Amino acid sequence: MEVYSTDNEQREALRRFFVDNGKALAIGVVLGVGALVGWRYWHNHHNDAMTAASSAWQPVNTGLAGQAGQPQLDAAQHFADANDNNYGALTSLGLARQYAERGDFAAAQTHLQKALGQTREANLQSIINLRLARVQLQQNNVDGALKTLDGVKEKGWTALVEDTRGDAQVVKGDHQAARAAYEKALQSGAPQALQALVRMKLNNLSS
Question: Transmembrane residues, as ranges (predicted)?
Fold first, then answer.
């Protein structure tokens, strides 16, 4: 492991790590969880009142599954604008992912904030806030990201919340707070893949 002679060098190396790998490692984890929750939500909440919305959502969701072209983005935008419900929120999440992958984090944030207003489902709100915090970090809005994380109340998301909080504190330069957050993430039943990532971050703080 590379050794840094000063705190500034260590901090800058950690900044570079999160800039270079943040989307693939951190956002990727949250997006993957979000896709799974979205799929389960569709199966568990498919009722008569939402039949029309869910039927229309399926092709829109398929269009956002890969690298969507402009026609798919336009169709998804139209659906999100017309559906002020959980399916609209899931579509806004999909649009946010598309723009985040293109590096347009301002647009991604706009879609995530729209998604928050489209659902009252607690776990879906947690996913949205986790993604929003990551997008805010990409825009160097550390205080905004930390405030967003405080809005995640569901205990099942603690590991991801604290992992993200640790990243925010690293960018802020508060390594003590970052360490505390990472350790809390490890104590919160994080999946093995996330545990490995968090331990690597802790090791980098110690080097």
Answer: 24-42
Please give the Cα distance from 62 to 94 (Å, whole number): 10
CA dist 191 and 166 (Å) reads 17
Q: Is 85 helix (H, G, I), strand (E, B) or coil?
A: coil
Q: State pLDDT tens for residues 58-104.
A: 888 888 888 888 999 999 999 999 999 999 999 999 999 999 999 99
| Residue whose entry in the numeric block shows the structure tokens 């029309």 | 52
Beta carbons of 171 and 140 less than 8 angstroms apart: yes
CA distances to 35, 167, 175, 199, 200 from 207, in Å? 35, 16, 12, 12, 11
Long-range residue pairs from 116-120, CB within 8 A, at least 24 positions apart, any chain: 116/89, 117/84, 118/80, 118/83, 118/84, 118/85, 118/86, 118/88, 118/89, 118/92, 119/85, 119/86, 119/89
Q: What is the pTM of this model?
A: 0.75
